Amino acid sequence: MNEIRVAIVGVGNCASSLIQGVNYYRAAAAAGTSDVIGLANPMVGPYAPGDIKFVAAFDIDKRKVGQALHKAMFAKPNNTKVFYDDFTYNDVVVKMGKVLDGVASHMADYPEHQTFVVSDKPQPSQADVVETLKSAGVEILINYLPVGSQQATEFYAECCLKAGVSLVNCIPVFIASDANWAQRFRDAGIPCVGDDIKAQVGATITHRVLTRMMQDRGATIDATYQLNTGGNTDFLNMLNRSRLGSKKTSKTEAVQSQMNVPLPSDQVHIGPADFVPWQKDNKVCFLRIEARGWGGVPLNLELRLSVEDSPNSAGESVDAIRCCKLARDRGIAGPLEAISAYTMKHPLIQHVDSKAREMLEQFINGASPAGATKAAATKQPLA
């Protein structure tokens, strides 16, 4: 039996969409459904989405801690779309997590149904988390903490290293793309994937592809912006601009990396715009690219993209988890180059998305001897 034992940190909207989807595709496979949509890779090696088994979870909200996972994932402030709920996880009870910098102070100014309500349960030590990971037989921990949770993410990364567990880091705290952390995972013989999940069809991937297309067609880009609005806790959390340093770096470099010559910093603006509560988990992206084409004649592109934010994330997380498991099976350690470049905004080495896809296919098929980067985590030329 193929099985991938996964723990979740942060049982929010992204976790809910991932768990729903894993069970949705498992049920479809059991029913013999042949026209299932939404998967770039129905199989990753021997692993289907339904082979992912969630065996542990951590959160800090009093409405989730102590609850069975299938109840916690639908508790407030979660507000993502419910597309499949015919499952239970009675044997997985959400444990109290480490708060550290996981909650911004301004969140206390908003209604309970929109924000976190921190549990008064005792917080775990590093040894407690390591013991939970080991006793549950966890192979991979997926990090869905709020943007800006630097200390909390590093806490769980340390736990992974001590427990021999891989990390799939879906937030813009730099672990897999940081030289020191990358080397520590290599030295420990543990594969990891990161950083900052790139949605299946979202603002960043769309911006990257359009940017590259314009350059490949001979246009010169002079300026660009990407502004996003949403009504989930991610957007509420990001109203605190002091938590956005790594997020802006991640999103900006993701687009700048697709240009032959990056734009001056005052000619590119990429980041969240505002929290709109009634949008819930719907994210709206407003994108503009100003360029010049033949004869220096101006051309401008305006785009509005509306997506359910968390299912969009899950469409890539499912591949990151399965590739991480493949790497564990093959004895590969350190940041995984292909899947990180394909699914993450801030990988150790940036690649054009079409090449990242080719590299990923090679890795899945076992034709790529690398899979994990061996280069230092310094500024890399676009490959």
How do the helices and strands line up, and which of them pair or pack?
Layout: E1 4-9, H1 13-30, E2 52-59, H2 69-72, E3 95-96, H3 126-135, E4 140-143, H4 150-163, E5 166-169, H5 179-188, E6 191-193, H6 203-216, E7 220-230, H7 233-237, H8 245-256, E8 268-275, E9 282-292, E10 298-308, H9 309-330, E11 334-335, H10 337-343, H11 353-364
Parallel strand pairs: 1-2, 1-4, 2-3, 4-5, 5-6, 6-11, 7-8
Antiparallel strand pairs: 7-9, 9-10
Helix pairs in contact: 1-9, 3-4, 6-8, 10-11
Provide key terms for this protein.
383 residues; alpha/beta; seven-stranded parallel beta sheet; four-stranded mixed beta sheet; 11 helices; 11 strands; disordered C terminus
Molecular structure report:
The protein has helices at residues 13-30, 69-72, 126-135, 150-163, 179-188, 203-216, 233-237, 245-256, 309-330, 337-343, 353-364, and strands spanning 4-9, 52-59, 95-96, 140-143, 166-169, 191-193, 220-230, 268-275, 282-292, 298-308, 334-335. By secondary structure, it is α/β, with parallel strands linked by helices. The strands form two sheets. It has a seven-stranded parallel sheet with strand order 3-2-1-4-5-6-11, with helices on both faces. Strand 2 (52-59), helix 2 (69-72) and strand 3 form a beta-alpha-beta unit. Helix 6 runs parallel beside helix 8 and helix 10 packs across helix 11 (353-364). The longest helix has 22 residues, at 309-330. The protein is globular and about 65 Å long. Mean pLDDT is 94; it is low at 373-383.
